[in-house]
Amino acid sequence: MNTLILYATKYGATKQIADQLARELGGNVTINNIHDGKPGIEAFDTVIVGGSVYMNKIQHGITSFLKANEKQLIKKRLGLFIGCYTPPETEGYLEQFFSTALLAHAQAKDMLGGLMQYDKMNPVYRKIFMSLKKIDDFNKNFIEPKIETERIRAFAERMQTETMRC
C-alpha cells in the first residue's frame, strides 16, 4: 500500500496524530503538511486527509484540497480524520468538514483526539478557556482532550483491512 497522509495543524497535535497513524500503518507512507505544498495524489493508492479543528473550523487548505481533488479521491482508498477536542460520539460533526460523497466513500473516518495547548493559543482564546475552567458547571462536562491512541490504531486497521469501495 502506497499511502499519503496529508494533514494541516495549527499547534502540532494533528502532526502527532499523522505520525502515529503512519507508524500504525507501516509500509510505504508519505506524510505531508499541506502548508508545505500540495502533492500530486496520482502516485498513491491510499490517501488519508486530516486537519485540526479550531473554533469549529478546519484549515482552509484542507477544504480547498478536498474540493479540488474530490473526483480523484473517490478513486482511491480514502481515510478522513479530524483532530479536535470535541467528543468522538458527537453525531454529525464530521459532516461539517467533509462532503457527503467523500464520507460515503471513506474506508475510515473518525475524530482522533487533540490537545489543548494553552501555551500556544492566541492570548484571547487562552484567557477564555482559562476563565471557563474556573466555572464549576463548565468543568462538570469538560474533559481535557488527548490524542486517542486506540482510535488511531482502529483507524489504521480499517484502512488496512477493508476492501476499497469505488
TrEMBL record:
One Pfam family per UniProt: Flavodoxin_5
Source domain of life: Bacteria
InterPro entries, per database record: Flavodoxin/NO_synth, Flavodoxin_CS, Flavodoxin_dom, Flavoprotein-like_sf, Protoporphyrinogen_IX_DH
Entry GO MF terms: electron transfer activity; FMN binding; menaquinone-dependent protoporphyrinogen oxidase activity; oxidoreductase activity, acting on NAD(P)H
Stored SUPFAM superfamilies: Flavoproteins
Limits of the Flavodoxin-like domain: 3-160
GO biological process, one term: heme biosynthetic process
Secretion signal span: none
Record's protein name: Menaquinone-dependent protoporphyrinogen oxidase
Originating organism: Acetanaerobacterium elongatum
Taxonomy of the source species: Bacteria, Bacillati, Bacillota, Clostridia, Eubacteriales
